[in-house]
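Encode chain A's predicted structure.
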Amino acid sequence: MQEPVVNALSFDVEDWYMGLEIGIGEWGRFEPRLAIGLNRVLALLRRKGARATFFVVGRCAELHPELIRRIAEDGHEIGSHGYSHAKVYEMTPEAFDADLARSVTLLREVTGQPVRGFRAPYFSITDRSRWALDRLARHGIAYDASIYPGPNYRYGIDGSPEHPYLIGALPEFPAGVGRLSRLKFGLGGAYFRILPYQVTRHSIRRLNGDGRPAMFYLHPWEFDPEQPRLPLRRKRAQFTHYFRLDVTLRRFERLLDDFRFSTVGDVLSRLRLLPAQPAS
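Encoded structure for chain A:
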């Protein structure tokens, strides 16, 4: 009997307000709630025996080192999500280097783990910011997970490969996508809450049936339905951020029962795109 395909499970670790396009200078005005969703995620992964990659905003490691250390102690992989959660295509190369270096240094100091993976905030490696991929290796980054291979009003390189591949020598594991007729949607995030669970399950099964792993992604704040509601300028952002947060935990538990998952680095090593992580 053929072994089930192992899929990549990832979380973008940012507090509830960090993804609302509120600048870092304003973050101090908001209630910190990272522990609420993150503790629910870690408890469930522990119970199910699943491992994941957590792409952590550097500022979160600075504010909550004990929470980020707990992720590593539970055996999960730590990746960088930048320091300030700024869109890469709005940064200069020099600002990007400084932001990433600050993030990687913080994460290494807090967890004692090497930081091999990077995911740009808002999947903001686009045609405007491909230059950033050439700068990752200087910060010790061994793989990228920043490209969304579909259309979106904030991000995406539509038509780019939908499976793990090499960009030069750099492994790229793009965000997973599924299809409903002509609609292309992400495997995770708001799509996981908006669309019926069966749509996500069918999409991952189709990929696995072709022998391909899926990349699934969520945020800890999606496990915190009691978070404050802020009026957002973009109605689309208002809808996608807050829609049906109450279903995330139940659906995610079902997903863990239906599929096998591991860290992004582990899946890439199984595909022979990345050396296996040495035992610590």
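The domain at 6-270 is CATH 3.20.20.370 (TIM Barrel).
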